[in-house]
Design a protein that fits this description.
heterodimer, A: alpha+beta, SH3 type barrels, six-stranded mixed beta sheet, extended, B: mainly alpha, two-stranded antiparallel ribbon, 37 helices, about 50% helix, elongated, disordered C terminus, mRNA binding (chain A), phosphoprotein (chain A)
């Protein structure tokens, strides 16, 4: 039954596997079990997928209830095409390690940049002191 | 601790009614009360149950200490003990000084009239131990009825007294969502994250069929000083999960506050269709509550109160019951570790879950579905509403399970996808009714009186699509493709002006502020600065702001004017003249805005217009307005533009929006008389008037020629002039034709102009060659051509010789 043609409604996405990107940057993959008018989602058998470079790792999380306002985007996963990805799956420990390393590298680059700017008498206000919106 | 206290503070009307309903019918009768009017009164004999509980409790002392650390072994031993062992154990578990516990005392106190027990409770409320011992006695003797699936979700309750039962049942939530109802396998194992050493576990495991336990945590709070664990047995079959301390939030943080829990069943029963207090996602306890049977009309329950019991999930737990009753311990074992394995091994990301389920519950599946209707759960310890909801939900789920298993929305067309859906036991957790509810809300949000205003882009897009499909249809006469359209209800939107509540004759106003009645937070006073204070920069800034403001106003007018056509079609006959007048008026306003009308003045300086034209939005707006203006007005605009073109070109360097004006200008040109065209050309090239000697250099013209727009405009003007000339035989001969004169001067200028970086015109009119040939001789014509040719690096020659337009 085509619920609401021409509109974006999540009703037809129920019981299908979805990838949900949250505002805090997390990527969740799970079966969409329930929704409401605010697009709050109930995800079942959710897995949090962490991507670092060409590798990714899955952390099983169980059931997630996501408040609608925190969703950036979500999309249905084609079960047949799901496995055809050039990315390589690794273990959780490894991906977390990679993620840590990546964060570390980013922080250091940022530090260098700020230092360079400071040397030139410029400053860029930090993101956390700015309004997020 | 706070939980209990707050429960105390909660209005317990219903609870009281339930148990005093027998004696006190004059009081407010809660018609929903199951125990008085519903199945509780008929089926469940809470009195006996309580007696049983009391006796069990008595025998439960001080065995706590012995059970610490028994861990998993105890879970296995669930069914191994006989009643006698139980009695012994229970007697060890209860501590003597338990009744100094204020909670228990209070509980006992508020239930003075319990039941006609031998050596009744009525006698001495304060003789707590005596009371409780008696309560527990009968419990043991009875056969344990099987428990519903849902109660596995519920942690242990202390059946110390009816009220306590209720209170604690509502407070006791598991640490994690281990509700067996939705989405997770039945809880048989220790949930993830449960601390390994639960004192509760041993007690639990010592229970035979007829017991369950609840324990109070070790003394961490002031009220529990020095009190070891105390177990109370309740007449429930095995609740495999370690019982959760019912009142201490510390380890189990996610429990709903008791008042909320009290509130939830109430609100649903009061029939609010979508009670705001009911969150879309319920805690496991709430979910279980709502699953309880209740004599509610289905419509009264919010769809969010769904908690469907999938048959698959239900059965394994139900399986335990008959087995428990039969005392077969070993049957318990396979499910337990199986499910523990389920929990410990994270489910892989790929679907589907049923493939990973441990084999344990599997075999039970078939048998138990048939047995489901036979269960008569012992729900005495539950809140009456809870119980009611539980039962009703069970019945519903039984029906649904039969109907819906495997059915439901199948969006996938691929077979594998359908397979997945077929095998997915968690499918259709969201009922059709709930889906309809959500889509109903979404449809409500789409209601509007003026869809063109509220939902412009959507309407336009779909119109375009329709036109496209209609066009396609006409071309290729294939079958008409029915594109399902969303028909949004067109509802007259009533304007509700909100007036905050005011009481008559009261002093002062209510301080409540809401979204409709916001409170004024800041008194912002507007102070306009005096002219003297302003510096030059500020004046410039203000001027720019004013211009922007004018642009915005004019734009709104423009949008309205553009909309008139549609409105005209939709309106009635007599309204049309009025509409036309409105439209005319608006057009006048627009023009005035553009030219900066000042009362009692001749057309003022171009400044106002130029300012507007310096802004990108202004240019685009002018381009859109031009078609609506009368010829004179439009010609005026064009003249002004031409006059100030170099300045505008300079300002347009970043935006590059001027070319958008070309097409309305060209359109306009075709309506202009030759005189105007001639003067326009003059303006454009800033040709010297009359016979004045030409200036050594013509920066105006060079700027114009260097800009794409300028050059294109020039060419268009020239072309138009040529058309006029050639089409009007009378003027052919007249040498004093203004156009001719101008042209002579123009060609002279053009020849003179150095060939420095001329722009590429947007389009080259086709009649330029003939134009120029009229006025210049062959040699100069070649020169002109080469000049023009140089602009486009070789393209123009072809274009000139073989007329074609871009």
């Amino acid at each position: 039954m085509n619920y609401m043609p021409g509109t974006a409604s999540l009703i037809e996405d129920i019981d299908k596997k979805h990838l949900v990107l949250l505002r805090d940057g997390r990527t969740l993959i799970g079966f969409l079990r329930s929704i409401d008018q605010f697009a709050n989602l109930v995800l079942h058998q959710t897995v949090e997928r962490i991507h670092v470079g060409k590798k990714y790792g899955d952390i099983p999380r169980g059931i997630f209830v996501v408040r609608g306002e925190n969703v950036v985007l979500l999309g249905e996963i084609d079960l047949e095409k799901e496995s055809d990805t050039p990315l390589q799956q690794v273990s959780i420990e490894e991906i977390l390690e990679e993620q840590r390393a990546e964060q570390q590298a980013k922080l250091e680059a940022e530090k260098l940049k700020v230092q360079a700017l400071k040397d030139r008498g410029l400053s860029i206000p930090r993101a956390d002191t700015l309004d997020e919106y | 601790m706070f939980r209990y206290e707050s429960l105390e503070d909660c209005p317990l009307d219903e609870d009281e009614d339930a148990f005093q309903g027998l004696g006190e019918e004059d009081e407010e009768i809660d018609q929903f009360n199951d125990d008085t009017f519903g199945s509780g009164a008929v089926d469940d004999d809470w009195q006996e149950a309580h007696e049983r509980l009391a006796e069990l409790e008595e025998k439960l002392p001080s065995a706590v200490n012995e059970q610490t650390g028994n861990g998993e072994r105890d879970e296995m031993d669930l069914l191994g003990d006989h009643e006698e062992n139980l009695a012994e154990r229970l007697s060890k578990m209860v501590i003597e000084n338990e009744l100094e516990d204020p909670a228990i005392m209070r509980a006992v106190q508020t239930r003075p009239v319990l039941q006609p027990q031998p050596g009744s409770l009525n006698s001495s409320i304060w003789d707590g131990s005596e009371v409780l011992r008696r309560i527990r006695g009968p419990l043991l003797a009875q056969e344990m009825p099987t428990v519903s699936v849902l109660e596995y979700a519920l942690p242990q309750r202390p059946p110390q007294g009816p009220e306590d039962d209720r209170d604690l049942s509502e407070r006791a939530l598991p640490r994690r969502s281990t509700s067996p109802v939705i989405g997770s396998p039945p809880v048989r194992a220790v949930p993830i994250g449960t601390p390994p050493k639960q004192v509760a576990v041993p007690s639990f495991n010592q229970q035979p069929v007829q017991s369950c336990s609840i324990d109070f945590p070790p003394p961490e709070t002031s009220s529990w000083k020095g009190r070891p664990m105390w177990k109370v047995l309740c007449p429930k079959p095995v609740h495999v999960r370690p019982p959760v301390p019912p009142r201490f939030p510390a380890p189990y943080g996610e429990r709903a506050p008791p008042d909320q829990l009290c509130g939830v069943p109430n609100s649903s029963l009061l029939g609010h269709p979508f009670p705001p207090s009911v969150p879309p996602v319920l805690s496991p306890l709430q979910r279980a509550q709502l699953l309880g049977g209740a004599q509610l009309q289905p419509g009264r329950m919010s769809p969010s109160q769904f908690a469907r019991v999938p048959g698959f999930v239900g059965s394994p737990l139900a399986a335990m019951n008959p087995k428990l009753l039969q005392g077969r311990v070993r049957q318990m074992l396979p499910p337990a570790p199986g499910f523990r394995a389920f929990f410990s091994a994270p489910p892989p990301a790929t679907p589907p879950p049923p493939q990973q389920h441990p084999p344990g519950p599997g075999p039970h599946l078939q048998n138990l579905r048939s047995q489901a209707p036979m269960f008569r759960p012992d729900t005495t310890h539950l809140h009456p509403q809870h119980r009611r909801l539980l039962h009703q939900r069970q019945q519903q789920s039984r029906n649904q399970h039969r109907n819906l298993n495997g059915a439901g929305d199948r969006g996938g067309h691929r077979s594998s996808h359908q397979d997945h859906i077929r095998k997915d036991p968690y499918a259709n957790l969201m009922l059709q009714r709930e889906k309809d509810w959500v889509s109903k809300i979404q449809m409500m949000q789409l209601q509007s009186t003026d869809p063109y205003l509220d939902d412009f882009y959507y309407q336009n897009y779909f119109e375009k699509l329709e036109k496209l499909s209609a066009a396609e249809e006409v071309q290729g006469d294939g079958p008409k493709k029915e594109r399902t359209k969303l028909i949004t209800p067109q509802v007259a939107k009533l304007e509700h002006t909100y007036k905050p509540v005011q009481f008559e004759g009261s002093l002062g106003k209510l301080t409540v502020s809401s979204v409709n009645n916001p409170r004024k937070m800041i008194d912002a006073v507007v102070t306009s600065r005096s002219e003297d204070d302003e510096t030059k920069e500020k004046q410039v800034r203000d001027k720019r702001r004013k211009t922007l403001f004018i642009i915005e106003k004019t734009y709104s007018l423009l949008l309205d004017v553009e909309d008139y056509e549609r409105r005209y079609l939709l309106s009635l006959e007599d309204e049309r003249p009025a509409l036309m007048d409105e439209r005319k008026h608006k057009i006048c306003c627009m023009y005035d805005n553009l030219r900066g009308k000042l009362p009692g003045q001749e057309r003022p300086s171009d400044d106002h217009f130029v300012q507007i034209m310096c802004i990108r939005k202004g240019k685009r707006m002018v381009a859109r307005i031009l078609p609506f203006l009368s010829t004179e007005q439009a010609a005026d605009i064009l003249m002004t533009t031409a006059r100030n073109l170099p300045f505008l070109i300079k300002k347009d360097a970043q935006d590059e929006v001027l070319p958008c004006l070309l097409s309305p200008f060209s359109l306009l040109l075709y309506h202009l008389p030759p005189v105007t065209v001639a003067s326009l050309l003059q303006q454009l090239m800033s040709l010297p008037q009359g016979t004045a000697a030409p200036a050594p250099s013509n920066p105006h013209l060079s700027t114009v020629l260097q800009s794409k727009f300028g050059l294109s405009l020039l060419l268009v003007v020239l072309s138009r002039g040529e058309d006029l000339q050639s089409s009007d035989p009378a003027s052919e001969s007249a040498q004093s034709n203004p156009w001719t004169e101008v042209m002579f001067v123009a060609t002279r200028e053009l020849l003179r102009i150095p060939q420095t970086g001329l722009a590429k015109p947007i389009s080259i009119p086709t009649n330029l060659v003939s134009l120029f040939s009229r006025y210049v001789d062959r040699q100069k014509l070649n020169l002109l051509e080469t000049k023009l040719q140089k602009e486009e690096k070789g393209e123009s020659m072809d274009i000139l010789v073989q007329p074609c337009s871009e």
